Amino acid sequence: MTDNKRKKKAAPRPAEKKDYNAILNDGWADDVKLHYPEPRRRPEDEMFVRDLDDTSPIPPVSDEDPEDYPTPVVQHIRIHKNTGQNDVPNDRPDEKRRSARNTAIKRPDRKSGKKRRKKNQVSAFRVFMILWLGGIAIAMGIGLSHFYDFLCKYEETYQASRPIHEMDRLFDTYFRTADIDSIYNMLSAKPEPGPLEDLDDVKQYMRALLDGKTLSYKPSENYTDELPEYYIEADGYIIAKALFRKDPTKSLDYQFPIWYLSELEYYTQPAESFRATVPEGFTVLVNGIPLDENYLTETTQVSAEREFFEPYAEIADYKSYAGSGLYLPPEVSILREDGTPAENVQADTQTNTYSADFTPSPEDRKEMEDFAISAVTAYAQYISQDLSDAELERYFTPDNIFLYYAKNNFSRTFYTKHSSVTIENVEIRDFTAYSEDAYYAEVYLEQWMKLSYGGSEPEVVPTDARFYIVRYNGQWKVNGIKF
Question: How far apart are CA 123 and CA 102, in angstroms?
């Protein structure tokens, strides 16, 4: 019989009844070792033999400890060699053992108990791990949230502690808005106005450095983390400097410093000046303030002109005034002796230089100019022998040396005969009034005459005379001539 057929016959049929007594009394399988899964329990150590007819219950198996397992029950099965119920050959001990196991009363399943315990342990472990990991995740989330809040607060506090924020506040609040009053109050050294200006002039000067300018700031060459210093610029020119220091008594969180403005400088350089030259007795006013002797720089005697007026008129000296250290260009005005504004004021606004002479009223000036033209005309006609000595003398003061010079002029003696004399192109080229009683006039005129030996065209004889005229007995007289 083949092995396959033997195997088929070796498997007992559940419906068939077997003679277990005969099997148990058969001793051919007595030499087969039984293998048990428990390493600590061996059949040689302890054996509990149970009779097949015993119907008492098998003790329960404990799940708590392997030591509580009951003593395994070994059922001796005797199998006849030549029966058809178990046709297993003597040379196949494995088949005998399988057949014995299949026909024996089953022992309590120890592996299922272990599996249940293991399954319960795994379930409990999974629950524990889930709860543990969930707790860890929640704790990490809370910790990370607090750490993120800490980082945000730390960064905000750090940024708030930077001195550039204080500089931004100073720059935007005061300089961009041109708040000159506040800037002036914050200055470490406040500029003071001079006697010819007031505080409004100083602030107006400070404001002029900001108005219409492109403002910016930058760290100075002396900038350090401990002493931050900045330059404030207007159109690229430095106009101010700000220095910050740490507050020694206060600080932010995490010991970050609080900065305060320690020094503020505004480069206010008073660079304006003036100069004025006026006759003595005149008054010079700068910004509405009369100048006193403290501003007098020199007194110029008009010596060259003075001798032409003596002894009939006093010529005032010229005085010069000067001043500097002004923040704004000065407003200069000049008054005459009678307190009326001088009319012939010469002003150079680029250098702030001013000058003035005595200015007669328009009516008086016209009278002075008319007399000067008449006197020069008479003088020219006298030289050309067209006027008598008596007519010339009425234009000069008594005993005038210049009248003597005119009478003894050598050119009069040999003057060419002529006719049809006319006066043309009369012009006042210079006029200076030194006082109400003395003035200077330069008159140009031309004599057109027909010479006795000439042609039809008239001869033109120019005369340019410089006369110094005084008031004598209520009338204008020539007292000097400048050749």
Answer: 34
